[in-house]
Every structure is written in structure tokens, then in C-alpha cells.
Specification:
The structure holds two protein chains of two kinds. Chain A has one domain (6-234): Rossmann fold. Chain A is 28% helix and 28% strand. Chain A has seven helices and ten strands. Chain A has a six-stranded mixed β-sheet with strand order 6-7-8-3-9-10, sandwiched between helices. The longest helix of chain A is centred in the C-terminal third of the chain and has 16 residues, at 169-184. The two termini of chain A are 32 Å apart. Chain B is an all-alpha fold. Chain B has a domain at 38-248. Helices cover 70% and strands 1% of the residues of chain B. Chain B has 14 helices and two strands; from the N terminus they run ααααααββαααααααα. Chain B has helices spanning 4-8, 18-37, 40-62, 71-86, 92-114, 119-139, 166-189, 191-201, 203-208, 213-238, 249-262, 269-284, 291-305, 310-320, and strands spanning 156-157, 161-162. In chain B, strands 1-2 form a two-stranded antiparallel sheet. In chain B, a hairpin with a 3-residue loop joins strand 1 and strand 2 (161-162). The radius of gyration of chain B is 19 Å and the shape is globular. Chain B starts with a helix and ends in a 9-residue tail after the last helix. The chains are: A alpha/beta, B mainly alpha.
Chain lengths: 236, 329
């Protein structure tokens, strides 16, 4: 994995929310087809990192390169057109639109996106719910819709922020299974996660983030052996 | 409720219940027969403001932008149309087209300048730009200053229908208004309309899905300006007058009031609001009562008791008793 050319390279990334300096030199990379997680305590800067990649956080310094070209200088709405999809923590389903309208809203940015039938196959819960207002879905269904909406655009590099937060274990398993399917399809995923078991069940590598810096990198194979180390980072 | 009927019934047949169909047919009949009972030019005035308020509603209700400068498009187009018909001697259709063209270009320019600002700043920029148009209207010789452009010729529609007859004028303006509302109806039910709804709900989120938010807002603003211009042009021809009253900030405020009173963000709300306000002004004008005070009081009551506006409130009540899939307009 490590030897191949990196799809995304983030180096010495600093980021600010207004005056407050949140990212202090994040450096990490993601190879094509990998699932990589960012682990860390609340407030470590994981979500901010995703938002900085998407350009939602505008005040940034350092380098973010995707497929070899710089994306910091791009206007925010251009970033998704590179095939990068963002599923935010709050899911971002539009309340005024129904399920189908939410699904069809984002423009198709690349060929190879999933059709509606494929999507319903991946997330059977959404089938038959076309006319339901988006936010009337359960939390898990909203999460599925948020992911599905990105898959339809053809994005093959997906930033997923805490997809399992607040969801029942059964739903978490369903989402894990669907992410496995996506991985088999060759999609690349950066996952921010608090749920270590979930992360371990699907990821290839883990980065540990502390106070806006990557402090460690752990391959998934050695994760069980590294639990003490990891707990010292994440434990209270 | 009113003008939609003629157009809305035809193209789609899906999920129109018989009750709805009946209401549409009844409304169409009322609208078509109205000039038999009511003074046609008064109806024409209502139609012009229905179109104007509905046009404003594209930005205010559907895109979530409070424009305080729409009088510039309405009044500006009225001046251009009046001048084109009277001085250049253009036929009715071309004079209206000139007015609409002017409003479209003006809308594009104003929009491009204002669209990056949000909330009250957007309102202030649009107000400032509209005040510049007002200033020009006062200063430029062709507008006739305080007198405005008077006795604009009515002309004929396609050289056939004599628009000097107020009943003919009514049906022609009705046709244009129906066309305008049909355009709005199609626009907000299209993917474009969904994008506007998404932008209104959360601009940042829409942007991170790859939508060029500014461009969609600008399209909405320009469309709104064009239809406001159409309303102004029709008013100039029907009343044979383009005057300073049409470009004042007071006019911008009044059309906002109509939209809010009727119910912004709904298709029919602005039409209800415009009908209500114009009728109030008309019937109270002979009563000696202070009109602005009464309308102001009604507005305050509306804001305090039914914030969604007259139609907005009715619609919300009706929808509460129905299936969620019925969230039609």
C-alpha cells in the first residue's frame, strides 16, 4: 500500500477558525483504494482536517495535494469536481427536500457514479422512501442517504465524518458492510471515527491526531498489539 | 389559486385529486369572468402586482435573499417601455420586450454586485443600487421628472387586438401574468428549484456538494428582475404612465409587504398578498381612512399571529392534515 503513489497528500497543514489556531501541522497521506482513519479525542482537529481539505475552513497554510495537484487554491465549490465527496458529521440532509430530491441534488462530477438502482441495492432502507422529507428519516437512514448522495455523483474519494455517531449497533454493522462494498469497488475513504471497533473492522491504517498534529500511525494489522499505545492517546 | 389554474391544469395530470381539479377549474372560471363584474383596469393593476410580488418571491421566498431594490426593475422597465412606445413608436410587444430586456440586464448587474453579500448587507446593497436608479429617473430628461411619461399609447397586440379596450387589456395582461407564474412554477419544481431550496437552507453545505452557489443565486435574481420588469412594463402600458412612484424605495417595500402578507416561499402566497394589498388600497382610498396606517396594522397583526402569511398559514394547516407526499408547491 505504502509504496504506491499517494492520492492525497497533506503536509504541514495549519488551519484556523477565525482567530483560533486548530490545526498545527497535520501531515498524512492516503493511497488509492485505502480506508484510512483519523483517530483522536474530541477537539483534536479531525473534523477540521476534513473541512480544511474541502475548503470549508478557508484559513489554511501548508499543502494539500490531490492526484499531484494543489487544491488549497481552489474555490470551495470546485473541490467536489475532482471527485472528492464529503459526508459531514451532521449528515447535511436538506429538510425542505424529500429523499429523492436530496439524492438527486448534488451534480454528477465524474462518470462511474452509482445509479439509483445500485444505491437502493446498497442501502435497501432507502428504497420506497423517495417522497419522504429528508429529515423524517431515522438517523441511520439519514446517514445512508448522505453517503448515497455522494456515491451518485461519481466521487471516488470520500471523506466520512463519524458515520456511526449515535446509531444503533445493527445500523453500524450495515454501514460497515456497505463501506466494505465501496472499498471492493475501489473507492478511497478517509474516516473520522470515535468508535474504534468500527474503525478496526474496515480500515487499513490509522492516524492518531492530538491537538491538531498527527502523532502516530498504526497499521490495522498491528492494531490489537498496539492497544496499550492507542489507549494512552485516546484514554481519559 | 387564481392564475395558475389556466396553465397548471394542462401539463401534468399526476396526482391531481378531483377536488383540486375542481378548484382549479372554478378559479379559472372566476378569473376569466372577473371583468364582467369588476372594473377591468383595477383587475389589471392587481395582476401586475401579482406578477411583481411573485417575481420578488423567487429571491425572497425561494432563494432566501431579501432584495430591497426591486422597484428599480419594475419602475425602470416601466420607463423604458413607456419611452419606447411613446417616443420611439415601437409596437406594444417590442416596447414590453425592451422594458423586460432592460430589467434583465439591470438585474444581472445588480445581482453580480450584490450576490456575495448576505442578509442585511445584501438588502442594503440592493437598496443603494435602486436609489441610484431613482436618482437617474429624477435627473434624466427622458423620464419627465415629476410628471413621468404620460399618455403612453396602448397600441395593439400583434396589430390585431385593440388594447385601448380595458377588457382586452385585462386578458392580455392575464396571459402574460399566467405565463410569468408558469415560468416560476416550472423553475421551482425543477432541479434548479431544489438547488435554490438547498442554498436557502444551508449555503455552506450546498457549496461542499459542488454547487456554485453564487451562480445559482445570480440566475434566480436575474429571472426575478426580468419578471419584475415584465410587470412594470405591462403596468406602464395599461395605465399609460411611467412615474417616479414606480422606482421609489417605497415601492420596493410595498412588494415585500405583499409577499410576506400572502406567504413567501409559496407559489400562491404572493398573489394572495398582492390582491389583498391592492384591494385594500383601492377600497380604502375613497373612505378617507389613513391607508398606510391600516395596512401597517394588518401587517403587524399578520407578523404576530400568522407568521407564514395568509396563504402560507392556510397551506400549513391543510398540509398538517395530509400525507407528507402531498407537499406539492
Amino acid at each position: 500500500m505504502r509504496e504506491q503513489q499517494h492520492l492525497l497528500e497533506v503536509s504541514n497543514l495549519n488551519g484556523w477558525y477565525g482567530e483560533s489556531h486548530v490545526l498545527h501541522g497535520m501531515t498524512f497521506n492516503v493511497g488509492a483504494g485505502e480506508i484510512v482513519t483519523l483517530l483522536g479525542r474530541n477537539g483534536a482537529g479531525k473534523t477540521t482536517t476534513l473541512r480544511a481539505i474541502m475548503g470549508v475552513v478557508r484559513k489554511r497554510r501548508g499543502a494539500i495535494t490531490y492526484k499531484g495537484s494543489d487544491i488549497i487554491s481552489l474555490p470551495q465549490h470546485k473541490v467536489p469536481w475532482l471527485g472528492i465527496g464529503y459526508v459531514p458529521e451532521e449528515r447535511g440532509i436538506f429538510a425542505t427536500l424529500n429523499v429523492l430530491e436530496n439524492l438527486m441534488l448534488p451534480p454528477v462530477t465524474q462518470s462511474g457514479g452509482m445509479g439509483i438502482d445500485d444505491i437502493y441495492q446498497l442501502f435497501p432502507n432507502l428504497r420506497g422512501r423517495d417522497q419522504t422529507p429528508g429529515t423524517r428519516l431515522s438517523g441511520g437512514e439519514q446517514q445512508m442517504l448522505a453517503i448515497a448522495r455522494i456515491l451518485r455523483t461519481g466521487a471516488d474519494f470520500i471523506l466520512l465524518d463519524e458515520p456511526t455517531e449515535g446509531l444503533a449497533p445493527v445500523i453500524v454493522e450495515e454501514i460497515a458492510a456497505s463501506l466494505q462494498v465501496l472499498k471492493q469497488r475501489g473507492l478511497t475513504i478517509v474516516l473520522v471515527e470515535q468508535n474504534l471497533r468500527f474503525a478496526a473492522s474496515i480500515a487499513d491504517r490509522h492516524y492518531v491526531v492530538e491537538q491538531g498534529v498527527v502523532v502516530d500511525e498504526i497499521a490495522n494489522e498491528v492494531l490489537p498489539a498496539s492497544m496499550d499505545r492507542l489507549n494512552s492517546y485516546l484514554g481519559v | 389559486m387564481t392564475l395558475l389554474s389556466a396553465t397548471a391544469a394542462a401539463p401534468t395530470t399526476r396526482s391531481f385529486s378531483t377536488v383540486r381539479l375542481f378548484l382549479l377549474v372554478a378559479a379559472a372560471a372566476v378569473v376569466l369572468a372577473a371583468p364582467l363584474a369588476i372594473y377591468p383596469l383595477f383587475l389589471v393593476k392587481i395582476l401586475c402586482f401579482i406578477l411583481f410580488a411573485s417575481a420578488l418571491n423567487i429571491v425572497l421566498g425561494f432563494a432566501g435573499l431579501l432584495s430591497f431594490g426591486h422597484a428599480a426593475f419594475f419602475g425602470g422597465a416601466a420607463y423604458i417601455t413607456a419611452h419606447a412606445a411613446k417616443v420611439w413608436g415601437l409596437p406594444f410587444e417590442l416596447a414590453v420586450l425592451a422594458g423586460v430586456g432592460f430589467a434583465t440586464v439591470l438585474g444581472l448587474v445588480f445581482g453580480a454586485l450584490a450576490i456575495r453579500r448576505h442578509g442585511i448587507y445584501f438588502a442594503m446593497v440592493t437598496l443603494a443600487l435602486a436609489q441610484m436608479v431613482y436618482f437617474l429617473a429624477v435627473q434624466l430628461p427622458f423620464t419627465g421628472g415629476e410628471d413621468g411619461i404620460q399618455s403612453v399609447p396602448h397600441g395593439t397586440l400583434l396589430g390585431i387586438v385593440d388594447l385601448g379596450k380595458s377588457t382586452s387589456m385585462y386578458y392580455v395582461v392575464l396571459g402574460f401574468t399566467a405565463f410569468g407564474l408558469f415560468v416560476i412554477w416550472r423553475a421551482i419544481r425543477s432541479p434548479f428549484g431544489h438547488i435554490l431550496a438547498a442554498i436557502r437552507e444551508n449555503e455552506q453545505r450546498a457549496r461542499s456538494l459542488g454547487l456554485n452557489v453564487e451562480r445559482y443565486k445570480l440566475i434566480a435574481f436575474t429571472l426575478s428582475a426580468a419578471l419584475s420588469g415584465l410587470a412594470g412594463s405591462l403596468k406602464a402600458i395599461a395605465f399609460q404612465l411611467a412615474s417616479l412612484a414606480d422606482v421609489t424605495w417605497h415601492m420596493s417595500g410595498e412588494v415585500i409587504l405583499m409577499t410576506l402578507l400572502g406567504g413567501m416561499g409559496t407559489l400562491i402566497g404572493p398573489a394572495v398578498g398582492a390582491t389583498f394589498v391592492v384591494s385594500m388600497e383601492h377600497y380604502l382610498s375613497t373612505s378617507g381612512l389613513p391607508i398606510t396606517f391600516i395596512i401597517g396594522t394588518v401587517f403587524v397583526i399578520c407578523v404576530m399571529l400568522f407568521r407564514r402569511g395568509i396563504y402560507g398559514e392556510i397551506r400549513a394547516r391543510l398540509l398538517a392534515t395530509r400525507q407528507p407526499s402531498d407537499l406539492g408547491d
